[in-house]
Amino acid sequence: MLIKLLKICLFAFILTLPFQGKTYADPNSIMAIVNDDVVTSAEFNTRMDMVIKTSNIPNKKEVIARVAPQVLNILIEEKLQTQEAKRLDISVTNDEIYDGLARIAQQNNLSIEDFQAMLKKRNIDPQTLADQVTAEIAWGKIVSQRIRPLVDVTERDVDARIAQIKASEGRQEFLVAEIFLPVTSDAEDAEVAALANNLITQLKQGKAPFPVLAQQFSQSAGANRGGVVGWIQEGQIDPAIEAALKSMKAEELSTPIRAKDGYHIIALKEKRIIGKDTDTSNINVLKVEVTNELGQNMLEMRARRYMRELKSQAFIERRV
Fold first, then answer.
1. Phi-psi region for residue 214, left (φ > 0), alpha (ψ -120 to 50) or beta?
2. Which of 42, 122, 223, 225 lies deepest, with the highest CB count within 10 Å?
3. Please, what is the average pLDDT of the chain?
């Protein structure tokens, strides 16, 4: 009963706390049209305010200009996710939103009470955080219902991966989390690089936790897991990233790494040697691990493809 009451009280707080953030555009204007929905300047203002306050990036015009396109793109994707959930008759309950908010608190080593106090102290609009969590949960349900049943890890897939692991004994593996900032044209390279350096500064000065920045800025598959990618093996990653990982120590943070697709900020959690620090002899255990790994990779790949298809089929007009 006490837990249920706490959930109700927190959710009421999330919906009623006033917003006192700075605006960056006319709140009555439309920043993007997404099918039969819009991203308003008011939505953008509150999301930008949350991003600035949770990540501690400088509230300066030039910094906001670098971050704005990515924030708008995230809002557009969230519109598509909630639209698709509505089309599929998928709903998100208040309890699920509460659990999502509790997970964010836990990722930042905060209790529910401390999380609530932090939002209030920083004058962060709780509704924009609830909206973000709602879209994330809705998308998770779509992936679970529509995509997961299509993932088929065959015996041949598992055997091929195990053979690859056996052949890789003696090589290094790296447990990493990352913040990935894509570069889609040469013209935006300098701006993205500046943003990456700014995020590094916030991380090294301890002004923002890595999971928060990953969730707000990263466009990699692990963004909603605080940037966690998992174990990656040498020889299977971009050479620039691999070179950096080999020179890093556990719990170390990289400088921004320019790979072919954009900038990567890497947090190295752990290193190990395949076959030496890992047990590859127990074939049954290995099969379970490989099946889970391949299934997760396929699921994430199909989920990204699903989102690309939603974007390609949607009417999207950016007005900024």
1. alpha
2. 223
3. 83
